[in-house]
Structure prediction request, 193 residues.
Amino acid sequence: MRRKHPAPDRGISRELTASYSRQYAKVQSAITDYDRVASEFERKWGVDRLPELVDAELRERFWQTVYRLNVAIDKNDPDEVRRHADAAARGWHALDRAASDAGALPPSGEGYDARIDETRVLRVCRTIEDATVSQRERPDVVAVSVEEVARIWKIWDERDILAQAKQAFPGAEILEARVKSGGEEKLDDEIPF
Prediction:
């Protein structure tokens, strides 16, 4: 009877591949745990908003920890990645406590609604974070911040005509807006009064 011989050990190459796979899995696991915490607080406070709500010292310590995490990821060092990922996750919790203690509130998604047409609703929110929450909670609305409305207004009322009219006639209401077709616009529309 012939004996079957086991496949030869592939030496250092096999060892490195197995080691690399374990190393990669450990790094990915630490990053996944960190991302879960970061995502939780970004859902609560808005993307990149929480560090802005705390004092400079805490914000700088947090960014230093995130920087160290990124360096460890670049080095592909699982122990360092885990250590810094855990520290950065604790940093998110510290940012959350500090922001809450300072009286900051997560975005509410609240805003003012107006019908655009038969099928769409415009919601104007105080901040972009409120608009983001609103859009996530109510995908049927078009949610924008007041700042975005101001940017649109600047483009739309390039010559500042509407702004001047609103100032000259307090209480005046915009009932209709349309784009003129054809060449040069003429400002000789009939005034309806």
Q: What stands out?
A: Residues 1-16 have pLDDT under 50 and may be disordered. The two ends are 110 Å apart (CA to CA). Residues 153 and 159 are 11 Å apart (CA to CA). DSSP finds six helices and three strands in the chain.
